[in-house]
Amino acid sequence: MWRLVSRVQRTVQNHQSRRIQSRALRTSCGEGTFTAPHRPLWRLGLQKPNTPKYIRTNTMANLKEIVLTEEVRPKLIRDCATVLNEEVNKKKGVKGLMIKGGFKVIRKLENGRMIERAIDFLLDEFVEELDAYYQSYLQEDEASRPTFSMYIQQRENEVTESLLSVTDRRRQRASNKVLIATYDKLRGVAAKNVKEGVPAVGRLMQKYAFELNT
């Protein structure tokens, strides 16, 4: 008899222990924070039994998670190539001819796909540099801040240096002699030309991070 009572007590204790552990796990697991209602809402007739009782809070996404998805990335690359071509065509004078000549040489590489491949190759690092501005922008007062495009344009000097730091690092690791020679030839005027292209960069980020992401 005493053995039976003892066995029943152990069974009850184990069952209670498992319930406590299960409840603790449900309210604290995962990457985000979970909020458990004081009483199950479905018992009050306010929520269906199959509705999840624990809701993960959202976290702030970085720019790469928005504009470098499998769906968005190819579109962004095409738009970047179009913008780059437009910016090059705007160049005038002797320096403009030099830039257009260098661009023409690069465009012929890789069976005419060098521009898109170069953009794809550099895009992750470019977006990573721009993410610092994106995160800073999100901290601004939403009611008074400008568009992200304008925010980037207002910081064109810093953005220019950030973008050039990417190409400078890549140049150090490049092996294509034609590409290296062309880059070295154009690097002296690169800052001015990249700075002129910053507004276009801002518009692209505005388009993909905000206008198409709403």
Secondary structure tally, helices = 8
Residue share in helix: over 70%
* Rg value: 28 Å
Number of domains: 2
Q: What amount of the residues lies in strands?
A: under 5%
Shape: globular
Q: Enumerate the spans where pLDDT stays under 50 for 5 or more consecutive residues.
A: 1-5, 24-59
Order of helices and strands: HEEHHHHHHH
Mean pLDDT: 77
- Please give the order of strands in the largest beta sheet: 1-2
User: Could you describe the largest sheet, including whether it forms a barrel?
Assistant: 2 strands, antiparallel
* SSE-based structural type: mainly alpha
DSSP E strands, number: 2
Spatial gap, N to C terminus: 69 Å
Question: Would you kindly provide a written description of the structure presented here, covering whatever features stand out?
Answer:
The chain is mostly helical and 214 residues long. It folds into two domains: 2-56; 63-211, no CATH class. Helices cover 72% and strands 2% of the residues. The chain is built from eight helices and two strands; from the N terminus they run αββααααααα. It has helices spanning 2-28, 63-67, 73-90, 93-112, 114-138, 148-153, 156-173, 177-211, and strands at residues 34-35, 55-56. A two-stranded antiparallel sheet has the order 1-2. α3 packs across α5 (114-138), α5 packs across α7 (156-173) and α7 (156-173) crosses α8 (177-211). The longest helix is centred in the C-terminal third of the chain and has 35 residues, at 177-211. The radius of gyration is 28 Å and the shape is globular. The model is unreliable at 1-5 and 24-59 (pLDDT under 50).
